[in-house]
Amino acid sequence: MNYSWGKKGGESLVGTLGIDGKHMDAIDGSQPYAELWMGTHQNGPSKNAETGKLLSDELSVEPSLHGAEETSELSYLFKVLSVAGPLSIQIHPTKEQAKILHSKDPKNYSDANHKPEIAIALTDFELLSGFRCHSEIAANLQGFPEILELFGNNEKAALSSLAESPSPSSLRVVFSKIWKTDSIEIGKIVERIYNRVKDDATDLHFIIARLAKLFPGDVGALAPIFLNYFKLKPGEATFLSPNMPHAYLFGDCVECMACSDNTIRAGLTPKFIDVESLVEMLNYSETLLPKYVPTILPNGSRLFTPPGVDEFWVQEVTLNVSEKFEFDYTDSSSILVVINGAASVSLGEKSLRLDKGQVVFVRPTSGSSERVYLENPSDAFLAYRAFTPMRKFLKLRDN
């Protein structure tokens, strides 16, 4: 996917994976390479490299390729992202909300599914995610008289309440006032703020100025006043539950989500912004720990099992020369992408050598005696595997 916010040419991990994995013939230094999609979503379906057939078509005619609890349409969408500039401030709806949005506006909400996401950093990764402590938001707003000029008695009372104790209802009053202000008026306010803070080195002013320079007059430039700004180190992760506001700013990551493309945008984009749905559906609660900590399995891999999500788990596998890894959770099919190095994947009598950037679909094992292995790796081998967990494993997680 060549979205404008992607890193360009050889600077893009997505681009280099595309070349190394033989997904494309050449790389254009002036072209952004933003996302590598893996799965059966209609907007970017995977194909069998040997036959050219859609993965979904092959799954539909050969039931042995998917598990007993799976269908020909995978329940997740697996991605690698290379981010050079901010994505839109956005949220993703719940299942119930997605059904309503899709019914009312299928043009902007193309399916009826929710889209919980997990992002695992491959490089230092900057993002905005979740609302700050409400008292911190109140303190931040006091530093922007340009915004305070918008507030009437109702907003002033809500701001005072936020300063005293957490109050999602008060935050909604303040946030909605700003986001519902006429675009021309709010654009002038953003411009005034930019001119005042552009040479200030404090973190909050710096990130606001950075966004306002890229998106002049866009209300999304004010999002850092409200949202946590933080950086993930390689291997660290964040889970984005439905209606959690977020925006990726810079870096590379692996991302997995329920198979949906539904996005309610709140700014930093020329695309459709649905302010009414945004204000109505936002989760206004404080988000104190936006980082997600995986489970380390006995085999040394790390397993990401986000709460409340039945559609996917993600496994990280790191190997060095001479090490061998046996897959677990093989009752379901899975997709494996190699981020660094090379290794052989084997199932029964079949073996396939995988190099950096290559992606393999692994069918479920057909019995207790069948095993799936990664073996003969190069040094510093790194791969990620996405799969749909069986209900029996979901019960163990939830207990």
From TrEMBL:
GO terms for cellular component: cytosol. Keywords: Isomerase, Metal-binding, Zinc. Its cofactor is Zn(2+). One of its GO terms (biological process) is GDP-mannose biosynthetic process. Residues 302-349 form the Phosphomannose isomerase type I C-terminal domain. Pathway: Nucleotide-sugar biosynthesis; GDP-alpha-D-mannose biosynthesis; alpha-D-mannose 1-phosphate from D-fructose 6-phosphate: step 1/2. Binds 1 zinc ion per subunit. GO terms for molecular function: mannose-6-phosphate isomerase activity; zinc ion binding. It comes from the Eukaryota. It holds the Pfam family PMI_typeI_C. The active site is at R265. Its EC number is 5.3.1.8. Residues 2-133 form the Phosphomannose isomerase type I catalytic domain. It catalyses: D-mannose 6-phosphate = D-fructose 6-phosphate. Residues 166-227 form the Phosphomannose isomerase type I helical insertion domain. Zn(2+) binds at Q90, H92, E117, H246. InterPro entries: Man6P_Isoase-1, Mannose-6-P_Isomerase, Pmannose_isomerase-type1_CS, PMI_typeI_C, PMI_typeI_cat, PMI_typeI_hel, RmlC-like_jellyroll, RmlC_Cupin_sf. PROSITE patterns: PMI_I_1, PMI_I_2. It is an enzyme of class 5 (isomerase). Belongs to the mannose-6-phosphate isomerase type 1 family. This is Mannose-6-phosphate isomerase.
